[in-house]
Amino acid sequence: MTDAFSGDTPDTPYVAVDADVLDANIAALAAQTAGSGMAVRPHGKTHKCAQIARRQVAAGAVGLTVATIGEAEAFARSGIDDLFIAYPLWLTENKGARLRELSERTALRLAVDSAAGAESMAHALGDARDAVEVLVEVDSGQHRTGCDPTRAGSVAARALSVGLRVVGVFTFPGHGYRPGHREETAHQESAALSTAADAVTSVGVDPVVRSGGSTPTVEFADAGVLTEVRPGVYPFNDAQQVALGRAGITDVSLMVMATVVHREPGRFVLDCGSKILGTERPEWVSGFGLLLDHPDARVVALSEHHATVVTDTVVPELGSVLRVAPNHVCITVNLVDDLVVTAGGAVVDRWSVMARGANT
């Protein structure tokens, strides 16, 4: 079998990360939050990569947020010792055993959003229930998971009654992924967390943790209410963040490198498709990815291994290698085994996407 690498030049399509831009993005958020009183707990589901997690912790992050027990296990193995699974888990006996084992080697924080969920968690954790911290999730407007902020107190009270150690509240302002709504969403997040904090205080919980913040909304996070922010996409950025005005083209550190394999007037085809770019396309994004060197071109169609691009300007030559920012970088990362790392325009390393597929 022939290795996909020839010298320092990988075969396309592949996912590249510009380490210089990546480090600048991590440093920018650290500088933004410095002195605010808000801790940074980045979401690891975006990068799933030990090397990036370590860079974030070195820049001041207090730990990592993850989406699943599997991601928590992967990052714990890589040395991250403070983890929050920001998902209202419904625990089976096996998941409870995995969490008990995790709690023995890392500080662990879990989420509940219902009385029944708290009861299930306490039962599954058994004697380890006091070894973890618990946050009550509230809905700040996305209408996915999370209880109404006014009900946070009753959920917290039930969690306390079954022996869980409740330390605060959290939310995810995911509805900030709409053009022109980032600041408004951050205000809604603040109001929801403030209401929820009052509700849990009324049942005897000191809400020392009030956690929120997404990449689109983090610059508007209310440090008077929030104690912690959990952005995920910011080390990479993507086409969505550019469309939202959260990032510029030069702030995108992760890109799919693809070759022009067909061309004709006004149209060309790249050798990257849905199996590396993903298929997500919000109505407010112009195509299935952003060509960083041809921002006026549009990726109008994807098949599994082809991306069809239209342009009113010069069509690139056959064999040209172009940079494509995916719409949703989290999806692209989960579609590849590793990230090709560049610095100063040269390939310098290859980082494993070690939590890829850790969905349970």
From TrEMBL:
Chloroplast keyword on record: no
SUPFAM superfamilies, A to Z: PLP-binding barrel
Limits of the D-serine dehydratase-like domain: 253-343
Keywords assigned: Lyase
Keyword Lyase in annotation: yes
InterPro entries in alphabetical order: Ala_racemase_N, D-amino_acid_metab_enzyme, D-ser_dehydrat-like_dom, D-ser_dehydrat-like_sf, PLP-binding_barrel
Source organism superkingdom: Bacteria
Record-linked Pfam families: Ala_racemase_N, D-ser_dehydrat
Family designation: Belongs to the DSD1 family.
Name of the protein in its database record: D-serine deaminase, pyridoxal phosphate-dependent
Organism: Williamsia maris
